[in-house]
Amino acid sequence: MAESIQTIEIGSINDEWKNKLSALGTAKGEARSELLKNIQQYAVKKVDEWKSEVVYIGIIGDPGAGKSTFINSFRGLKATKKGAAKVGLKHTTKEVTEYPHPKRPDNLILVDFPGVLLKKGQQGGMAFNIQQYLDDYGEKMNLCDVFLVFTSFRIQHNAVQIGMEARKMGKNILFVRSKFDVDLKNQEEDDPYYLKENSKEDLMEGLREDYIEVLKDVGWLEDVKPEDIFIISGRLPAVLEGSFDMPKLRKAMIDDLDDLKKMVVINTCRDYSKGMVEEKAQVYRNQVWQIALAATAASVVPALGTASVPAAWIAAYHQYKQGFGIDDESLEHLAKMTRKNPTEFKDFVQSRLTKGSGTPEGVVQAILGVLSSFSTSLMTAVIVDQVVDYSIPVIGAVITAPVSFGINYKVLNKVIAIQEQCAKDLFDLVFRDSAV
Ligand SMILES: Nc1nc2c(ncn2[C@@H]2O[C@H](COP(=O)(O)OP(=O)(O)O)[C@@H](O)[C@H]2O)c(=O)[nH]1
Ligand SMILES: [Mg+2]
Asked: Are residues 71 and 194 in the same domain?
């Protein structure tokens, strides 16, 4: 029998889970139900675990470098909105200010650290007392998961010095050079032929190389690679659309975070670039086995809702939609930001998520249609009648359930794939004729 069973690649399963699963293989009767119940509870808890995490993103740098503008855009806010950071040189921050993300204010917080301009009458680098700065702000700095160091047209020593201290605390430091839209305009003025013969990417590459040289000059002691430097525009449309290095910056911001913190960022941030959509899909795929387990266990434990489609599916479906920014609320926000028609976006998404039937893809899409209408009883019917097409073997023979782990795993992956494609197509629809 063992030979006819295929195994499914389930990503980062840990030893604890491996043990639970093999115990399940031999358990019988009561013991088996009990074990399944435990797995179910544990897995459901896991699915929601990220909601108790907090991610702090530290923002440091020169006054006027575009920090406040970025903080607003990253949170999907215009500068005039309530809760937006005050923008402009008159509004240089003197205290640490926390800017929670409006979508998940308890989970994702940008921390704006005071600027480091020398005070009037003070001269030279000596006037900036790094020890004093650390005494004042070191504790807050330590809280941050990652730092973005913003610098303007020339790099100031003090911002780099603070960054260096954060580095000593073991933090990931990303260098951001904002206002690239201004650079582009200047370049056109200064040398109209340059951009006819070279690409924007060439200009960005040149800036990155200059930047590395200056960083070394001003005392950045570590190795810096061009990919550590991010050339962006902090203007709202550019951030939403993912112009210039914005997608790479987003990816770098989450690269060093653990999986739960990654979930916080991707489930919270509104951004629509294709690179980020792919990144999100990957994080969801890594987590699918947990949801599949929850769904599997739920479908065989009578006490927890018989053989209907488990709540874990519905929870996952809606979580993904939010994460990909294709739920109604995100679409309304996007429509507002881009001054387009929310109904057009909603219809588009609805049609993408529910089209087709007959093929395996159609089955999943039928399920999606049902999921989106929230009717659990109908969903059960769809599963019983059609999911048989998915005669996916069970992992290691350890779980045999009405809706097997394999089916759950496969279908959830399909849900992610369909939503991922939908989010990418939405990007084309929304931004096809914008020029940021
Ligand atoms: N064109 C353009 N202007 C920007 C950008 N970022 C900031 N600004 C402008 O630069 C000025 C200073 O920005 P602000 O965000 O207040 O900088 P902060 O002092 O670092 O917080 C403001 O007038 C902004 O409107 C950008 O990416 N592009
Ligand atoms: Mg500011």
From this structure: yes
Task: For residue 340, give its domain range.
Answer: 2-51+274-431
Is residue 111 domain-shared with residue 219, that is, in the same domain?
Answer: yes
Instruction: Print pLDDT tens along the chain (436 aa).
Output: 332 333 333 344 566 666 666 666 667 778 767 776 676 666 666 667 889 999 999 999 888 899 999 999 999 888 888 889 988 867 666 789 999 999 899 999 999 998 765 554 444 444 678 898 999 999 999 999 999 999 876 667 788 889 999 999 999 999 999 999 999 999 999 998 998 899 999 999 999 999 999 888 888 888 899 999 999 999 998 998 889 999 899 989 998 998 789 889 988 887 778 888 998 999 898 888 777 776 666 554 443 333 344 556 667 788 888 899 999 999 998 898 888 999 999 999 988 887 644 444 555 555 555 555 544 444 443 443 333 333 222 232 233 344 556 667 777 888 898 899 999 999 999 887 554 4
Q: Are residues 282 and 242 in the same domain?
A: no
Closest ligand 1 atom to Cα of 152 = 20
In degrees and rounded to multiples of 5, residue 380 shows phi and psi of -60, -40
Q: For ligand 1, is residue 237 a contact (CB within 6 Å)?
A: no
Cα–Cα distances (Å) from 218 to 158, 164, 226, 238, 283, in that order, read 9, 11, 17, 30, 37
Report pTM.
Answer: 0.79
Q: Which stretch of DSSP H or E encloses residue 230?
A: strand 229-231
Atom of ligand 1 nearest to the CA of 150: 20
Question: Token match 């479908």: residue?
Answer: 299
Q: Residue 430 C-alpha to ligand 2 middle, in angstroms?
A: 30
Ligand nearest to the CA of 87: 1
For ligand 1, atom 28: residue with the closest CA: 179
Cβ(111)–Cβ(56) under 8 Å?
yes
Ligand 1 atom with the shortest distance to the CA of 63: 19
Half-sphere CA count of 415, side-chain side, radius 13 A: 29
